[in-house]
């Protein structure tokens, strides 16, 4: 009888430990499920970030500018829209690399569909920028409107040789265009883009700003 009573006590003790063991196992599996959930959330966030970046790269505006010689007295500006989104060309600027301020500005209002090319004769403006005697690099930049915002391309360079007011040579520079960043002086540096949002740095009070200087930033 004493052996039976001791067995009953042991069995009762084991039964009382079952809820404790169940609680420990529940906590253990809860921790495992929480870690799995966190990993799933991190993977989902990375997937969404990659999808957003791919979408932005696919639909972000991207224009390429090329200066080409047509004749000794004429040259052409060729603008190619490499993106899918359509843009509205607003301002073309020309300058020498040695000069910080653009020498020639041409206001435009021409639409450019994605994947298409726009060109215009700019021989007189290029010669006015270089003068009758010049040999060296010149740069062209475009300001355009797209998706409700105003953007500006990088300065695309070309090597030109002018003698006695005649264009002897005009070739695109082999130097790659610098990827222009979206201007945002507050906070961490953002991802670099091929175009620059010029509306981000407009001051609230710009009464002293001249109309032709709204979209100009020095540097090449």
Report on this structure.
The protein has 220 residues and is α+β, with helices and mostly antiparallel strands. It has 2 domains: 1-59; 61-213, Immunoglobulin-like, CATH 2.60.40. Helix content is 30%, strand content 34%. The protein contains 2 helices and 10 strands. It has helices at 2-59, 123-130, and strands spanning 63-71, 74-81, 87-96, 104-112, 117-121, 134-146, 149-152, 156-163, 166-172, 196-197. The strands form 2 sheets. Strands 3, 4, 6, 7, 8, 9 and 10 form a 7-stranded antiparallel beta sheet that branches. Strand 8 (156-163) and strand 9 (166-172) form a beta hairpin. The relative contact order is 0.13.
Defining traits:
disordered C terminus, rod-shaped, alpha+beta, 220 residues, seven-stranded antiparallel sheet, 2 domains, Immunoglobulin-like, 2 helices
Q: Strand count, sense and closure of the main sheet?
A: 7 strands, antiparallel
As a percent range, the share of helical residues equals 25-40%
**Counting H and I runs of at least 4 residues, what is the number of helices?**
2
Structural class: alpha+beta
- The residue-averaged pLDDT reads 77
Topology:
Blueprint: H1 2-59, E1 63-71, E2 74-81, E3 87-96, E4 104-112, E5 117-121, H2 123-130, E6 134-146, E7 149-152, E8 156-163, E9 166-172, E10 196-197
Antiparallel strand pairs: 1-2, 2-5, 3-4, 3-6, 6-7, 6-8, 7-10, 8-9
TL;DR?
By secondary structure, the chain is of the alpha+beta class. 30% of the residues lie in helices and 34% in strands.
């Amino acid at each position: 009888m004493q052996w039976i009573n001791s067995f009953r006590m042991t069995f009762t003790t084991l039964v009382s430990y079952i809820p404790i063991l169940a609680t420990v196992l529940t906590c253990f599996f809860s921790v495992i499920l929480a870690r799995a959930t966190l990993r799933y959330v991190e993977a989902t966030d990375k997937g969404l970030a990659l999808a957003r970046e791919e979408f932005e790269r696919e639909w972000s505006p991207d224009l390429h500018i090329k200066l080409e010689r047509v004749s000794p007295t004429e040259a052409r500006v060729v603008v190619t829209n490499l993106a899918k989104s359509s843009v509205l060309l607003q301002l073309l600027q020309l300058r020498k690399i040695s000069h910080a301020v653009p020498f020639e500005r041409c206001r435009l209002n021409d639409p450019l569909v994605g994947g298409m090319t726009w060109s215009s004769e700019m021989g007189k403006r290029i010669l006015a920028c270089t003068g009758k005697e010049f040999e060296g690099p010149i740069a062209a930049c475009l300001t355009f409107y797209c998706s409700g915002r105003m953007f500006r391309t990088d300065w695309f360079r070309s090597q030109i040789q002018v003698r006695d007011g005649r264009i002897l040579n005009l070739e695109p520079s082999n130097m790659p265009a610098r990827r222009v960043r979206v201007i945002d002086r507050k906070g961490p540096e953002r991802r670099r883009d091929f175009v620059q949002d010029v509306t981000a740095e407009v001051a609230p009070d710009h009464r002293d700003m001249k109309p032709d200087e709204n979209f100009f930033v020095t540097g090449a």
